[in-house]
Amino acid sequence: MHGKNLMPLLRLIMVYVTITIFTSSVIGQPATPKFESFQPTSTAHTPVLQPTQQFFPVQRNSLTLNDPYREQNLRLMQQGGMDIPGQPSINRQQQIAAVREVLREEAHERRDGASRPFQNSLRQFMQLNPDNFSITKAVYLAESAYDPNMPPYEQFEGAIKEWAALVKQTLKREGLNPANNTAINYAIQKLYRHTNTYYNSQTKKTYTIPPLRYDFEDMMGDKDWKKMFVSKLLQTKTGQCRSFPLFYLCVAEQLNTKAYLSLSPNHSFIQHFDSTGHRYNFECTNGNLVSQTWLAQSTFVNATALKNGTYLDTLSSKQLFAYCLSDLLLGYLMKIGYNNVSDQITKQILNIDSTNITALMTQANYNTYIFRDRLQEAGNPPPDAISNYPLLNAFYNNMQNAYKKVEQTGFQEMPPETYRKWLQSLELEKRKQQNKLEQERLENEIKKLKKIRPTFINRPKQ
Predict the structure, then answer these.
(1) What is the sign, positive or negative, of the torsion defined by CA atoms of 164, 169, 170, 172?
(2) pTM
């Protein structure tokens, strides 16, 4: 091919290489807050390029020194955007610099545009009272920031109210007090384990509603984060251990009853109490009641986590608020990644709940990215020399302290395959006598409620 025909192709190649390098530096980072082991980069075997070899043979310039039109031709070639044979291409360098600047600006615009819904939701979150807020509203704020195509809040809330109406019909059908906390929780749980009927007064029709079922496909939302959403559950009647309990709490809110979110490693479930103060653990993934002892023995819960209340305890209103805010953070990390906005959301969460696992892990990872960048800028010194760089050493200590805060909570992560087997074990566990007694206890309580009208109201946790 002629040199003139090669120029457009070379420029396209330069643009492609520039795009590849720049975009990989901007978005080439893990999104979800999972711990990463840090190993300082060693420079012991880094090859050093020595200027002892000439890679490009010298080519004689056709514009010789005795060419009377040399200066004129050079000027015309530069004005036409052409490269001058045998000379560094100032024009090409300018083109590359211009392309990089345009790409940088476009990347910032895309990131700013994508982060704007999250920042709007964050502002609305901060207008809520963590001690007394709507869980339905909080769930919507977190999910709608990630999915701009979600319907308006009124439609989302309306769908929740329809499920609450179904629960009311169940209470009426079974002769239970619609103001009793235990009875309402019992009726909500029937959504997860029984086929129910719902009469729509507007259409004058009765509908058969199958029980909610677990979605084992992409159950961690690695491929599609919307799999974790309550809005997805409303559309498909399927969910997993994140959306199921939040949906439960949204329905309970509409019925003015009390239930609590509780956590275990990589998992969440519902707790509620009867009139005697007995604690019930409801496993939303399969619609069964399980014992506290079994939960402690079957999950990755250690003594430190139990002592600190990290796992298997009820979340207070502030902790639940921080949990919903951490869903906003997770959506941001999945869509955009770690940056100053994710750090801003993280700090807001920790201001409300200093023990929030998601925020602590995100903070540790964010500090790790910052330290790695500073380490590279310092020339990748070995670990034993980091203390010789005061600023770098400060970033290193920040990273180490962030990881210590996570360790102090007693956090342990359950591997995905282990978690999948644990879910399957729930089906076997429901046949065991210990958890069967839990179910029988609740059913006996319900039988009593059908005969009397208790006045007990479950008090929220202070």
Answers:
(1) positive
(2) 0.71
